[in-house]
């Protein structure tokens, strides 16, 4: 394990962008495999519970997990093409911008809080928007369909992630050196990519409809008028 870590450090020092791109692509691809596995297990448990309530056991169908490798490749490409290169320059540039613009003491509470606020207010929503848009277009959907999918998935993901990522980023920006901050994020992106893929696969789940019910509706405005 130590040799692997030293090898990664050497790759990062010699080829920083390439290393971030490759690692991001692999992690996001693996995250989608995990997401499909979780979705499969959830569906199997639901089917099992339904069969238990029935007098006839019809649950002897094909329970084998069949991965959608086309989807895995598309999700992995998102890591290669967006998360890796954009994330690399984002964390480097964010640190440099705050140091030069606000002249704050590095790793001070104000320095960390400013980085977390900018990261959560800009890069977080952008990452979600690009992810859901890309996955929609990659699946062959039209612009109106992608727009509806983004409206369906963006807010639930933003709310759920908004409660966790700021806490993770506090530790990241406080204790992790800048060259390794994307690696830190990528480790948690293994869970995040799994989560986002799961969100996208949930489609019109009831809990999404509940969250969307709090949004202002054009139809309601028309009726109220």
From TrEMBL:
<dbReference type="GO" id="GO:0016020">
    <property type="term" value="C:membrane"/>
</dbReference>
<dbReference type="GO" id="GO:0005737">
    <property type="term" value="C:cytoplasm"/>
</dbReference>
<keyword id="KW-0472">Membrane</keyword>
<keyword id="KW-0812">Transmembrane</keyword>
<keyword id="KW-1133">Transmembrane helix</keyword>
<protein>
    <submittedName>
        <fullName>Uncharacterized protein</fullName>
    </submittedName>
</protein>
<comment type="similarity">
    <text>Belongs to the peroxisomal membrane protein PXMP2/4 family.</text>
</comment>
<dbReference type="Pfam" id="PF04117">
    <property type="entry name" value="Mpv17_PMP22"/>
</dbReference>
<dbReference type="InterPro" id="IPR007248">
    <property type="entry name" value="Mpv17_PMP22"/>
</dbReference>
